[in-house]
């Protein structure tokens, strides 16, 4: 079923007209309400009158994650707090989280795009949807939740973790849809296998997986092990959360809800738009959001856009699975991790920055983080207790900063390889 | 009376101890006493050597993490109850010991002590007429 056929199957001209009208309004609202972005526009010699349609989008200045940090927590909101009905947050580059606010209209819009996404995946109101994304500040749980209710399907708001219970409810409630990170889906399949439960005896038929990068090979593995169709959903809290784009049953790229989020692909070095169909950095402009509308937000995700009509009948532009990032951000179990956050923690422990190496691995389908820290003189003591205490402090501090458990290992100096004088900070051993 | 001890950080990897002793040997530095404190992941090698400053430098140059710290050398008779007597004095004076290592030779035994308060430790031991080892003597052993 196509939830909103008029939009999802609109002609390119119709879509451009919708985008133009909404973009013009959004630019005006931001210009008049956010001094920070107004300054940026003025520096570029722009006024709202220069934006006459979506074809003028490229003239506008970019917004980056550091702009959100500089205006922490609510500086980029265009409405008073009395209009904000919900706040979400994700980890930022340095300590402070990235905060987003939603008006009631924003929540309704978000529900609509998630509902459309679920329909793309072939989900309908008779489905029983087990939402195993985390509920809370993370947008995953609540975002899918509202869209599922809006569709009229039955929600099991179980949140993440507690795998035994997940399996018990799958059996007892006949869950037909599972929503979680792809790595957690694989983990559930392993636990099923160990418990001797044949996935064929479950009622699962569709999985809505996202919030972390995953490969085609991983999709095949999940589909084989859980006996369901694994659908990729994309989103980031800055734009709205899950449901910015989603695959349809043909699994040929994720349809972007471009009547709300206008995508562009730019060259991350020159910052110029690339030719149609070329790979580059994905940039979004939100054109209906009220709480925190963002113009030309740089996602740092690398992908390309496909404008051809899809076999499903939708004309919404599709984006390919993300091919990587144009910055050093890692996504581990749905959590954004920047090496700079680790640097900050280590710097708090000593005056000079120690050499470290972050190793990301996938063990039994779950991502694990380990950190090697070179013990230099400023850290060292002749007493075992002091070193063990140091290790504990680093572990705790990282856990509270990142929200992830990190296995900290103290190593000798020069253990970590230097390349051209600069240390390599991250090794990602996951095969994504 | 304060003795300079050098400590070296070692990962639990084979051959590391050998490397340290080789570097010191090549530099003409003699090791008088040493101990290794180990955990499942790393070890701390503590050494009393003939030339602590030079040892520190050569090991540092070779990429080791080295630290100098002060310890006390106690000499007591090589007989039953001698160590107990000395430790009792420290305990009674509320000096706690972070770690110690010892060796005995002939009629006397030597104990290297890392107390929490090194100055008071020396003072208490001297007041109780216990024999302390001079740094210059220990480096020569």
From TrEMBL, chain A:
It is an enzyme of class 6 (ligase). Keywords: Ligase, Nucleotide-binding. Residues 334-430 form the AMP-dependent ligase C-terminal domain. Pathway: Aromatic compound metabolism; phenylacetate degradation. Residues 82-285 form the AMP-dependent synthetase/ligase domain. It holds the Pfam family AMP-binding. It catalyses: 2-phenylacetate + ATP + CoA = phenylacetyl-CoA + AMP + diphosphate. InterPro entries: Adenylate-forming_Reductase, AMP-bd_C_sf, AMP-dep_Lig_C, AMP-dep_synth/lig_dom, ANL_N_sf, PA_CoA_ligase. The keyword Nucleotide-binding applies. GO terms for molecular function: nucleotide binding; phenylacetate-CoA ligase activity. It comes from the Bacteria. Transmembrane segments: none annotated. One of its GO terms (biological process) is phenylacetate catabolic process. Its EC number is 6.2.1.30. PANTHER family: PHENYLACETATE-COENZYME A LIGASE. Monomer. Catalyzes the activation of phenylacetic acid (PA) to phenylacetyl-CoA (PA-CoA). Belongs to the phenylacetyl-CoA ligase family. This is Phenylacetate-coenzyme A ligase. The gene is paaK.
TrEMBL record, chain B:
Residues 71-141 form the ACT domain. InterPro entries: ACT-like_dom_sf, ACT_dom, ACT_dom_pair. Transmembrane segments: none annotated. PROSITE patterns: ACT. This is ACT domain-containing protein. It comes from Prolixibacter bellariivorans. The lineage of its organism: Bacteria, Pseudomonadati, Bacteroidota, Bacteroidia, Marinilabiliales.
């Amino acid at each position: 079923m196509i939830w909103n056929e008029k939009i999802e199957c609109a002609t390119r001209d119709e879509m451009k007209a919708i985008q133009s009208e909404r973009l013009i309004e959004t630019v005006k609202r931001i210009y008049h309400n956010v001094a920070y972005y107004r300054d940026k526009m003025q520096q570029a010699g722009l006024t709202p009158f220069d934006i006459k349609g979506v074809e003028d989008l490229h003239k506008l200045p970019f917004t980056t994650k550091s702009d959100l940090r500089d205006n922490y927590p609510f500086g980029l909101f265009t409405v008073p707090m009395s209009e904000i009905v919900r706040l979400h947050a994700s980890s930022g580059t340095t300590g402070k989280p990235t905060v987003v606010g939603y008006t009631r209209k924003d929540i309704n819009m978000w529900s609509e795009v998630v509902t459309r996404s679920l329909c793309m995946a072939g989900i309908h109101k008779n489905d029983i949807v087990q939402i195993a994304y985390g509920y809370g500040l993370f947008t995953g749980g609540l975002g899918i939740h509202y869209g599922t209710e809006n569709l009229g399907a039955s929600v099991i708001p179980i949140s993440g973790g507690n795998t035994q219970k997940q399996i018990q409810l799958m059996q007892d409630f006949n869950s037909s849809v599972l929503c979680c990170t792809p790595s957690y889906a694989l983990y559930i399949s392993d636990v099923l296998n160990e418990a001797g439960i044949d996935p064929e005896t479950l009622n699962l038929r569709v999985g809505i997986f996202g919030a972390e990068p995953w490969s085609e090979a991983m999709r095949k593995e999940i589909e084989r092990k859980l006996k369901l169709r694994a659908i990729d959903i994309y989103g980031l809290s800055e734009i709205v959360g899950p449901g910015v784009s989603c695959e349809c049953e043909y699994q040929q790229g994720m349809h972007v809800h471009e009547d709300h989020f206008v995508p562009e692909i730019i060259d991350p070095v020159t910052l110029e738009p690339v030719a149609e169909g070329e790979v580059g950095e994905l940039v979004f402009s939100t054109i209906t959001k009220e709480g925190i509308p963002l113009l030309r937000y740089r996602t740092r995700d690398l992908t390309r856009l496909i404008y051809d009509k899809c076999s499903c009948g939708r004309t919404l532009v599709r984006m390919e699975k993300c091919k990587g990032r144009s910055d050093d951000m890692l996504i581990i179990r749905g959590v954004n991790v920047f090496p700079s956050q680790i640097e900050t923690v280590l710097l708090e422990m000593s005056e000079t920055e120690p050499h470290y190496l972050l190793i990301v691995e996938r063990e039994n389908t779950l991502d694990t983080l380990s950190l090697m820290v070179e013990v230099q003189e400023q850290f060292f003591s002749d007493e075992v207790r002091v070193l063990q205490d140091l290790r504990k402090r680093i572990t705790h501090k990282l856990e509270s900063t990142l929200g992830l458990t990190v296995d900290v290992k103290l190593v000798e100096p020069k253990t970590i390889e230097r390349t051209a004088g600069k240390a390599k900070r991250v090794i990602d051993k996951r095969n994504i | 009376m304060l003795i300079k001890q050098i400590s070296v950080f070692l990962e639990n990897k084979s051959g590391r101890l050998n490397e340290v002793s080789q570097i010191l040997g090549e530099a003409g530095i003699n090791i008088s006493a040493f101990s290794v404190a180990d955990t499942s992941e790393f070890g701390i090698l503590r050494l009393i050597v003939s030339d602590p400053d030079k040892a520190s430098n050569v090991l540092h140059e070779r990429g080791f993490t080295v630290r100098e710290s002060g310890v006390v050398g106690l000499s007591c008779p090589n007989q039953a109850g001698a160590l107990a007597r000395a430790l009792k004095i420290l305990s009674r004076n509320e000096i706690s010991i972070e770690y110690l290592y010892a060796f005995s030779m002939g009629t006397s035994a030597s104990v290297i002590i890392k107390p929490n308060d090194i100055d008071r430790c020396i003072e208490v031991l001297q007041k109780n007429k216990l024999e302390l080892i001079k740094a210059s003597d220990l480096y020569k052993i």
